[in-house]
């Protein structure tokens, strides 16, 4: 399958279709964002809190924005659809992690395998680079966490972060990993400092890294020059 073969529809129709498709994806993903963390941790509230509803509203808004941006960036192609799925999946994971501190395998591993399948024909990254990216993404954070544990005797991050970076590597290739880690780390550091200044984050308190990896991943995809386009 040629992921860059355009469909014979106008740009305006494609943008509207992409926006509608993104909003439709919000329905099952919003349910999963509530259900999956509670399967992992039964102590979480079974009621939809005000915070949960605010995150859901932000998720819908950002999904609509990302769907339109991806549709415009990659055109009326299967690659455009794949980019929308990638972005919306990352937004859902960012929501779950920000609210509960969990990154469910059901979403991270699905995103990883989908990335490898999409890149079979080198859509966003050559397949060997995608496979190496998946492995290197997991190992890189595992090593960082192991080093942190040796010096502090505390876990710096969860395995969900390892799998999320592996998924990003599967979509974007191993060359993207240093950039992703740099951008995500700088974003996380900035937000942590702001929260400390305003007394919203105490020293040693849990801090979710997944949302910053997700933001970096979406930014990397949108600014990526896929292999198939580098010769044009």
Molecular structure report:
The chain has 232 residues and is mostly helical. The chain has one domain (11-226). The chain has eight helices and no strands. It has helices at 11-40, 50-74, 78-100, 105-118, 127-152, 159-172, 177-197, 210-223. The radius of gyration is 18 Å and the shape is globular. It starts with 10 loop residues before the first helix and ends in a 9-residue tail after the last helix. The mean pLDDT is 91.
What's the helix-strand series? HHHHHHHH
Secondary structure tally: strands: 0
What general form does the structure show? globular
* Average pLDDT reading: 91
Number of structurally distinct domains: 1
Strand content: under 5%
The number of helical elements comes to 8
The biggest beta sheet, please?
A: none
Structural class: mainly alpha
Radius of gyration: 18 Å
Query: Ranges with pLDDT <50 over ≥5 residues?
Result: none
Q: For the record, give the distance between the C-alpha atoms at the N and C termini, rounded to a whole number.
A: 20 Å
Helical content band: over 70%
């Amino acid at each position: 399958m040629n992921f860059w073969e355009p469909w014979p529809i106008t740009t305006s129709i494609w943008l509207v279709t992409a926006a509608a498709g993104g909003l439709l994806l919000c329905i099952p993903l919003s349910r999963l964002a509530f259900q999956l963390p509670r399967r992992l941790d039964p102590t979480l509230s079974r009621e939809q809190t005000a915070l949960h509803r605010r995150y859901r509203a932000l998720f819908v808004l950002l999904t609509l924005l990302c769907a339109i941006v991806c549709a415009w960036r990659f055109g009326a192609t299967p690659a455009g659809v794949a980019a929308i799925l990638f972005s919306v999946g990352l937004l859902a994971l960012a929501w779950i992690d920000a609210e509960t501190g969990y990154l469910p395998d059901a979403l991270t591993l699905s995103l990883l395998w989908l990335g490898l399948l999409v890149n079979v024909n080198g859509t966003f990254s050559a397949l060997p680079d995608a496979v190496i990216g998946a492995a290197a993404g997991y190992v890189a954070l595992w090593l960082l966490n192991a080093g942190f544990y040796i010096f502090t005797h505390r876990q710096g991050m969860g395995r969900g972060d390892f799998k999320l970076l592996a998924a990003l590597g599967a979509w974007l290739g191993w060359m993207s990993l240093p950039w992703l880690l740099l951008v995500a780390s700088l974003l996380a550091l900035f937000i942590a400092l702001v929260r400390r200044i305003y007394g919203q984050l105490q020293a040693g308190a849990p801090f979710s890294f997944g949302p910053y990896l997700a933001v970096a991943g979406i930014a990397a995809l949108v600014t990526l020059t896929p292999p198939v386009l580098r010769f044009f």
